[in-house]
């Protein structure tokens, strides 16, 4: 007996497509699909299984419909988003919540009202278009980490991106049968202009229904607004993680290679454009993931997986010298989607690539020439700052494949928090313990804003765990879950904070690759292989250890003067920061008491140190 939804689907779909859906015996899936296909009114529906044919079909359709264009190198394509649709739209991204729920800092909306609005915007939005249905999983398949998800989209580019970024899940859906446990994404790029970019940006909406675990996205193409399994799913998995007592984080996952073949895994949370991807891709270390991890307590050990299998990375500034691995990948004939770059004679170009860029071509503004200005009179650079590349991790020669595929994940040795901070935090330091790290490093993270979201750049912004843009629960509940997660472990990862962006008189205090040294130091600290200097804000490296590491890792001299400048304890800035953070949390209900206790203890330690050593404290003065 067919249920009503299945009967409806039989009417709506061609036979071959219907059979693919029917093979998944899940009435919840059937009802969801029937309701939305009827509502969206596509003129054609294509259901993607895990077959190579279906993937090829989507790849082809992205070209056929003009959302992507071929480049000269085989398997390379370019995609453009509308000139005003180049980043995540924070203003129009809203969490739909039932009445009476208060989520500080977050952009919320009454659920009923939001659903009504988005349904109206999406009614018949796919008329004349083809709808693609795709099945994927977050995390490795068939493991305690797996979360299945279904994507509906009229953008072949979005579906193509998901094939590059996620593990296929059609067979997993078949295996799971009648589960309600899957996430749902409904996307439409809406009406397209002659350049095949979303036209009705005034009706751009990204609405996240936390009750039904469904995200709706309309009249936008930019990946951060549309690729359901990426940042849209992230809001839903944070909610699940906090409910179930695990961590869903905005972090890379990488292996740092220690002495004698020792492998130590680190996760790292940095706001967009703060060195997250380039840290994870240091050539002599090994990448597992660059954006999203799930961390669970398995037998008392924190173990992490990469949620994804690909990279949606920022291309600006990638050059042969600083990023040899990414450079090599971008110049090999593996499948890549370049977005919002300059194209001339079939070749992609981007700002800061270290070679000469042509004076004309096509970019995110259409036909482009040097000096071209936009409607606001702003000069248009060759590529957008947030231009990106999408590629599978398997293309990376330094991928840790075993770690990527292990259904139990890898043991987390250290967790790193990093922001774009001109004057407060030293380049690297280790927390005294879990709570100290979670509160003074994670929950107190601040960073100057960047081009990854629409809006003003270079403003110092509070961004706890670099997750604020994606948080979907009360910050107090989120932090309490974090603290408790650590308490239940038999072995807690060490927590570190890094800052690659210290400046003095407008000059950077560090070079781009210094971070490779900090990583090696952290690796040694995880195993207690080197000592450290105790400061009021945690442990910092000793000069002697860094000097050896700079020589070993970068074959560079590291001077005492550089060390002293970089690692001095900046009392006024640190105290000002504690005040800022205190003021942010103080008016909010439901913040764990530990937060204020940790901040107060830190303030006291800093004040005591000031009594003894003054406002700017040389690390040498603290060395015992
Ligand atoms: C980020 O901005 O953190 C990204 C890209 O990883 S986006 O998909 O836009 O979120
Ligand atoms: Mn990200």
Tell me what you see in this structure:
This protein is an alpha+beta fold and 624 residues long. A hairpin with a 2-residue loop joins strand 22 and strand 23. Helix 13 packs antiparallel against helix 14 and helix 18 (571-585) runs antiparallel to helix 19. It binds sulfopyruvate and manganese (II) ion.
Helix content: 25-40%
The secondary structure category is alpha+beta
Mean pLDDT, to the nearest integer, reads 97
The major pleated sheet works out as: 9 strands, mixed
Principal-axis shape: globular
Helix/strand layout:
Blueprint: H1 4-12, H2 15-22, H3 27-40, E1 44-47, H4 52-64, E2 68-70, E3 76-79, E4 93-97, E5 108-110, H5 111-122, E6 130-138, E7 147-153, H6 156-165, E8 167-168, H7 170-176, E9 183-188, E10 205-209, E11 214-218, H8 223-226, H9 228-244, E12 247-249, E13 252-257, E14 263-269, H10 276-280, E15 286-289, E16 293-298, E17 301-306, E18 310-314, H11 324-330, E19 336-339, E20 342-344, E21 347-349, E22 360-363, E23 366-369, E24 388-392, H12 401-405, E25 410-419, E26 428-430, H13 434-443, E27 446-448, E28 460-462, H14 475-487, E29 494-499, E30 503-504, E31 507-508, H15 514-526, E32 533-535, E33 538-540, H16 543-554, H17 560-567, E34 569-570, H18 571-585, H19 593-613, E35 616-617, H20 619-622
Parallel strand pairs: 1-6, 3-19, 4-5, 4-10, 7-9, 9-11, 14-25, 25-29
Antiparallel strand pairs: 2-3, 6-7, 6-8, 10-11, 12-16, 13-14, 13-15, 16-17, 17-25, 18-24, 19-24, 20-21, 22-23, 26-29, 27-28, 30-31, 32-33, 34-35
Helix pairs in contact: 1-3, 4-6, 13-14, 13-19, 15-16, 18-19
The structure holds sulfopyruvate and manganese (II) ion.
């Amino acid at each position: 007996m067919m249920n009503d939804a299945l009967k409806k689907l039989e009417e709506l779909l061609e036979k071959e497509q219907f059979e693919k859906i029917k093979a998944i015996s899940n009435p919840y899936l059937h009802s969801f699909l029937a309701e939305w296909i009827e509502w969206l009114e596509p003129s054609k529906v294509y259901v993607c299984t895990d077959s190579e044919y279906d993937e090829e079909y989507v790849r082809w359709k992205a070209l056929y419909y003009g959302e992507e264009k071929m480049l000269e190198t085989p398997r390379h394509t370019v995609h453009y988003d509308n000139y005003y649709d180049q980043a995540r739209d924070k203003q129009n991204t809203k969490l739909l919540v039932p009445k009476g729920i208060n989520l500080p800092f977050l952009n919320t909306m009454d659920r009923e009202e939001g659903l009504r609005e988005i349904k109206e915007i999406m009614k018949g939005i796919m008329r004349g278009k083809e709808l693609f249905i795709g099945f994927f999983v977050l995390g490795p398949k068939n493991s305690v980490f797996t979360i299945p998800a279904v994507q509906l989209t009229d953008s072949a580019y979005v579906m193509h991106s998901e094939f590059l970024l996620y593990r296929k899940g059609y067979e997993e859906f078949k295996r799971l049968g009648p589960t309600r446990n899957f996430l749902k994404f409904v996307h439409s790029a809406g009406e397209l202009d002659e350049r095949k970019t979303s036209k009705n940006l005034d009706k751009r909406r990204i609405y996240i229904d936390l009750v039904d675990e469904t995200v709706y996205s309309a009249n936008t193409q930019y990946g951060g607004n549309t690729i359901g399994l990426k940042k849209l799913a992230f809001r839903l998995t944070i909610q699940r993680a906090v409910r179930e007592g695990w961590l869903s984080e905005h972090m890379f996952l990488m292996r740092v290679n220690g002495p004698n073949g020792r492998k130590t895994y680190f996760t790292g949370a940095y706001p967009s454009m703060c060195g997250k991807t380039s840290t994870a891709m240091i050539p002599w270390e090994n990448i597992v993931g660059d954006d999203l991890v799930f961390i669970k307590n398995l037998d008392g050990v924190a173990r992490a997986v990469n949620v994804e299998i690909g990279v949606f990375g920022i291309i600006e500034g990638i050059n042969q010298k600083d990023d040899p691995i990414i450079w090599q990948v971008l110049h090999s004939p593996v499948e890549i989607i370049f977005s919002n770059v300059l194209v001339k004679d079939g070749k992609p170009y981007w700002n800061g690539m270290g070679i000469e860029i042509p004076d004309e071509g096509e970019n995110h503004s259409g036909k482009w020439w040097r000096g071209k200005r936009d409607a606001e009179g702003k000069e248009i650079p060759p590529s957008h700052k947030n231009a990106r590349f999408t590629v599978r991790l398997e293309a990376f020669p330094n991928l840790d494949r075993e770690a990527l595929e292990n259904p139990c994940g890898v043991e987390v040795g250290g967790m790193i928090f990093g922001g774009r901070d001109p004057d407060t935090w030293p380049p690297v330091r280790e927390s005294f313990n879990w709570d100290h790290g979670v509160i003074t490093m994670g929950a107190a993270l601040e960073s100057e804003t960047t081009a990854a979201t629409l809006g003003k750049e270079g403003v110092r912004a509070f961004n706890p765990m670099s997750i604020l843009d994606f948080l979907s629960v009360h910050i107090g509940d989120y932090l309490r879950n974090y603290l408790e997660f650590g308490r239940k472990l038999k072995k807690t990862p060490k927590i570190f904070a890094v800052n690659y962006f210290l400046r003095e008189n407008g000059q950077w205090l560090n070079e781009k690759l210094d971070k490779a040294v900090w990583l090696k130091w952290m690796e040694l600290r995880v195993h207690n292989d080197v000592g450290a200097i105790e400061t009021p804000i945690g442990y910092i490296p000793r000069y002697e250890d860094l000097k050896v590491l700079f020589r070993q890792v970068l074959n560079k001299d590291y001077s005492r003067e550089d060390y002293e400048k970089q690692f001095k304890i900046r009392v006024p800035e640190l105290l000002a920061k504690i005040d800022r953070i205190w003021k942010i949390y103080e008016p909010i209900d439901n913040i764990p008491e530990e937060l204020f206790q940790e901040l107060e203890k830190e303030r006291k330690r800093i004040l005591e140190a000031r009594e003894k050593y003054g406002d700017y404290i040389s690390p040498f003065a603290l060395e015992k």
